Amino acid sequence: MKFCTTALVFSSLSIGALAGRTCQTSGGSPTANDANWVEAYWHTANLNAGNVYQNSPTGCSTLNTFGTASINFCGPQGSSQPVSVVSAHLVEILQNCESDGRIGGRNEWDSYHADVFHS
Question: Which residues form the signal peptide (predicted)?
């Protein structure tokens, strides 16, 4: 029985590992300065909005663009998430995916994801 329990735990861990942060930083990624600025500006401008809504039929809405950087919120059409939640997922990319002065990546949770990418 111990083997089955252990196998179930490892199986659950690998399924859960599919969601989360994926760094996709390359020479074509936005500069770290632009990526940090675009998120900070969007977050500050939307603090009182409460929720961010995904109304695009493509499944992703571009939240803001600055210089070389853009940020997306993606999920089921008509869905929403608190601004603070989307911002936290974007900040996780910003804090963990910088390489050679550039940042790019995706952070997935539930049926949503947030992206930092070249504009």
Answer: 1-19
